[in-house]
Amino acid sequence: MTLSIANAPCSWGVDDPNNPHLPPYATVLQEASTAGYRSIELGPWGYLPTDVLTLNTELQRHGLSLVAGTLFDDLVSEHNFGHILELTHNICRNLSQSIKAQQNRAPHFSPPYLVIIDFGDPQRAKFAGQSSLAPRLSPDDWQRMISHIITVSEIAWQKYGVRPVVHPHAGGCIEFADEIEQLTAQIPHQTAGLCLDTGHLYYAGMDPVTWLDRYFTRIDYLHFKDVNPRVFHDVLARGLDFFTACAQGVMCPLGQGAIDYPAVRELLAARGYQGWITIEQERDPRHAQGSLRDVTESLNYLRNIGF
After folding, report:
1. Please, what is the angle between helix 25-35 and helix 291-304, to 10°?
2. What number is the average pLDDT over the span 126-133?
3. Which of 269, 125, 263, 136 is closest to 203 using CA atoms?
C-alpha cells in the first residue's frame, strides 16, 4: 500500500490570507518540498500567487503540484453567495490550469479537488465538537446551503473539470453524524464526493475508522490529522472555539495523538483505497517555525506504518 500523500498551507498556520503573521508562501513551498512532499493544496485564495503563470513557476521551482483548493466560507446565507460564486470560479480556474497532482490507479475521481467547507456561523464555531450544544440550521437554512453546494459543485465539474468534495468540518454547519447523514442523503455521489478528515471526525465525537468505513464508497479524497487528547478535553471543557483550540495545540503530528492510524491503514488497505491523502496540522502561524519538523514527522510516520 503506497499512497500519494500531500500537505496543505494550514500546517503552517495559513487559514486566513489576511492574517499579518503568515509565513511567506515561498517558505511553505520550500519546507513542504524539503519534508518530502510532492504535492500541496492551494490554501486560502490569495495566499499562493493568483496569476497562474506565476503559480506554476513557483510550484515547478519547488518540485510541487496542486492536489486541491478549498472553498472555506459561509455557504448558508444568500447575501454571501455572490462571493462564493466568484471564489469558485477563481479557485477552479487556477486548479484547472496549474501543475496537477497525478492519480495513483483509481476508480476514484482524479485530482484536482475543490474541497467545499461551510464555515462562518459564530455559534457553531463556538460549540465545535459539542453536538448537544451546537445549534442546528433551520430546515430552510439547511436547504439553502445544500442548494448552494450543488450549484458550486456543478460549476467546478462541468466548467473546469475539478472534482468537488464536501468536507465536514469542526465548527461548521456540517460537522456531526446526523448532518453527514443528511448531506449524503441529499447530494448524490455523481454531484459531489466526500473529503472525510480523521481529525474532524474525532473532534465531532465520531470514530474515524467506523466513519471512513461507513462512507467509503462516497470518499474521493482524505485529510489526515491527529488530535492531542489532553488539549482536546481541556479546550472543550473551557468552551473554546475551533481555531482558538488549534492555536493552543489541539492538533499534533500524526502518531502522537488519539487517532489509531494503524487501524486506519488496515481499513483503507482492506477497502482498496487508492486516492490521495493530505496531512494537515492547523496551528497559530506565529508558531510556524515548528512546521517543517512536524510535517516531516507526520509523513515519515505514515510511511513507517505502511502507507
Report:
1. 30
2. 95
3. 125
